[in-house]
Specification:
mainly alpha, binds zinc ion
């Protein structure tokens, strides 16, 4: 008892430090849960039927001539699907969601849309006479996905298995 009395300042500082550590840990847990929830929301949005339809239509684009007219439903669906990827890129860039979680799930799908997405964006830029990229965070995300290697069979197996990504078009999958 006398030790506590004689060292009450040290004990006080120790308790304060423990309090700080507990608070920091709690904040970290809450942030992690927020990032997980944020990822699940954008993931579900990327799986919406119209967004999947937009991705499917995207695969029909090999050159500027293949880009549907700007006022067509097809054009709007493709635009929406790319806007969703752009949103994913924005959230990852801003650290609102975890980069690894996002890329683990979507890296192959992103690689598959890279070429047609760039053609579509070029068509949009020329139609608007604007040099600015319509989806800058998508472009950043495509670059991230191009070199991403997941610690999963799709990237580590000697004979790659089918990608775990969802929403891309079967039989058009490429794997590098
Ligand atoms: Zn992979």
């Amino acid at each position: 008892m006398s030790w506590l009395t004689n060292n009450k300042d040290v004990v006080g500082i120790g308790l304060a430090l423990i309090g700080l550590l507990v608070t920091a840990y709690t904040v970290r847990l809450a942030r992690s849960a927020q990032r997980r929830d944020g990822f699940m929301r954008i993931h579900e949005a990327l799986l919406a039927p119209d967004v999947q339809e937009g991705r499917r239509l995207l695969f029909g684009i090999g050159s500027l001539d293949d880009v549907p007219a700007g006022d067509s439903r097809e054009h709007q669906l493709i635009n929406r699907s790319l806007a969703m990827y752009d949103t994913l890129g924005y959230y990852v860039r801003q650290h609102h969601i975890d980069r690894r979680a996002a890329l683990d799930v979507w890296h192959h799908s992103l690689r598959e849309v890279t070429s047609p997405a760039r053609v579509f964006c070029d068509a949009r830029k020329s139609a608007r006479g604007s040099g600015s990229h319509p989806f800058p965070d998508l472009e950043w995300l495509l670059a991230e996905a191009s070199s991403y290697r997941a610690r999963r069979d799709c990237c580590t197996a000697a004979t790659p298995t089918a990608s775990p990504t969802i929403g891309s078009v079967p039989n058009k999958r490429t794997h590098d």
